[in-house]
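Allow me, if you will, to draw on your knowledge of protein folds for a short while. I am sending you one protein, given as its amino acid sequence and as whole-number tokens for its backbone shapes. Kindly check, if you would, that the fold set down in the tokens agrees with what the sequence suggests. The record follows directly beneath this note:
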Amino acid sequence: MTGGHLDQTRRDEVMRALAAVPGLLVELDTTLARSDAIGVAKAGGAAATRQRALPYHKGASDAHDALARVLRYYALRVAVLTRRQAPRAPRDHAVYLRAHLPRIPGDAPALAGIHPALPSAVDAARAIIDRPAERFCIGLCDCGARLYAIEEQSEVSCAGCGREHSVAERRTVLLSQARDMVGTAVELARILPWFSGKPVTANAIRQWAARGKLTGRVVGGETVYRIGDVLRVHEAGRG
């Protein structure tokens, strides 16, 4: 990444972009309801390799990844100057940069290109969040082509063969395929509203588990829950 001298005007823009990052990441996580990696439950508490298996929001995923890459790149460069270890999470990268950036000269090589790279990544994330209509993959047609629908769309036509598909029916098919799949509380909180039409929080899932309504299992150091079990509790009274 390259760029010119970080004058005061550009520095102010970068600082405003950094201040916006935590909130943007929350919004992107909400929009990313279709981008989580989940696995298939197996007997004995194991799970298959975690994979993207449900509808996802590619635009939000790309924007999140691009923003995270920019934050990590400059956090690591600044860490060399400050001799303070950079954190790992994108939100913490933003906090870290906000804390140290004011004391770094504008011509420091570590900051080369931070403007416009960071403000541009933030603007791209905002554009994705504000976009009113986004296509989501809802599975495959019998001809093998991927099917995409816009939120609230009732029917879609296959781009491959032209066959009409009911979005509600595709949702039912995907749900039947997904009931035995597992995910963390955070992952399931993002994807389940697409199936149930009602919000569910990660904290609610954990509380259901604490009260014995759900049984989690540890996979790869993370506690995961079966989608079908979470939906059963969610539909029975939502907590």
The helical segments are 8-31, 58-82, 90-100, 114-130, 167-178, 185-196, 202-210, 227-237. Confidence is low (pLDDT under 50) at residues 34-38, 43-53. The two ends are 48 Å apart (CA to CA).
